[in-house]
Amino acid sequence: MLQRPTFLDHLRTSAKRSPITALLGPRQCGKTTLARLFAEGQSFTFFDMESVADQRRLQNPELALGELSGLVILDEIQVVPELFPVLRGLADRPGHFTRFLILGSASPHIIHLASETLAGRVEFVELSGFDLSETGSDALSALWLRGGFPRSFLAETDEDSFAWREGFVRTYLERDIPQLGFHIPAPGMRRFWTMLAHYHGQTWNASELGRSMGLSDKTVRGYLDILTGTYMVRQLQPWFENLRKRQVKAPKVYFRDSGLLHHLMDIQTRHHLLGHPKVGASWEGFAMEQVLRAFDPSQPYFWSTHGGAELDLVFMHKGKRLGFEIKFTEAPKTTASMRTAKVDLKLDQLWVVHPGEHGFPMDKGITAVPLVGIQEVAAKF
Fold it and tell me: Using the 8-state DSSP alphabet, how is residue 50 labeled?
C-alpha cells in the first residue's frame, strides 16, 4: 500500500477548519482506505451507507449521530441524501466538536446537495488515483500504462491490471450510472465512452460525435457531462481574452486516467502503447494530469487560435501566469507557436514538459523540464 501524505495533510487541515469534510473522487480511487488511515490514532465511528446493516443503524439519524463524538465517517453518502439536512443541524450544535468526514463518488449530486444544505459548514477535498509523487519516478512507465487507480496500478501483471479495468468499466456502466439517476443503456454509453477515447486531447465537437453515433448534439453533450461529473474525463476550457486573434472557444476533452483510456483503446502493453497512433495524445493527457496535481490550480485552461498558435495548458499560480507545452520527445525544440503564446498571453514562464531526464533552458522565459521533475519545479516556484 502506498502512503498518501499530501491528501492526509489536506484532511487534517480541513478537519480543523470545518465541521464537515467531503472527500470526493471516482470509485476505487482509495477514498475509504485514506479515510481509515486518517482515522488512525483517534476515536472514530465508521458507517458504510451501501451496507444494509449500517443503514439500519441510522434509521433515526439525528439520535444515532447526535450521540457520537470524535470523528464520524460516512462512506458513499450519496446513497442516503436525506442525511444532508441532518448533518447541517448536527454541525450547528453549540459546544459540540464532532467532526464529520463524508465520502462520495458522484460529485455533481453531492456538491449540489452540499451547496443547498451545508453551505459554510463543509470543505471539499478531491482525491484522484496515484501520481508520480506517490509512486516514485521509477514507476512512470507503469503509471502511464496502467493509470492511477490503486488496484490497476498495483496489479501483479499488465494482464491482471487490464482485467481489473474491464471490471471497473462494467460496474461503472451497469451500476454507478443508474445509481445517479441516469437511465442510459449500458451498451450505448460504452460505445460513446469508447469513441470518446479516440477524441482524447481534441477540441470537443458534439455534432461530429453525434453524427457518428446517430444521436443528437444534446444527447452526446449530456453523456459527456455525466463522464465529467463522475471524474472520468476532464473538460479543459479555452483561455479567452480580448485579443485580436480569433481564438478557439470549445473545450478540449481528456481522460483523467490514462489506464482507462488505454483500456478503451485496447492497449494492453507498453510495446503496444508506444506503437499506437494515439501515443502522443495519451502522453499529453497523462503529463497534464501530473502537472495539475503538482500545481493544483483553481482553474486550468488551454489556448488555441484559428491561425494555428496554441498552448496545451495555462493557469494562474501565486499571482503569476504560467504556461505548459507537453511534448513526447526527449529533445524538444522551441517553436513559433511557443514564442507567440509567450508574448500574446504575457506568460511569466513557459515550461515544455517532456519524458526525458534533464531540464534545460530553451529560450528567454521558456524552459524544458522532465515530467519526473515537475513536483520539484512546483515546490520551488
Answer: T
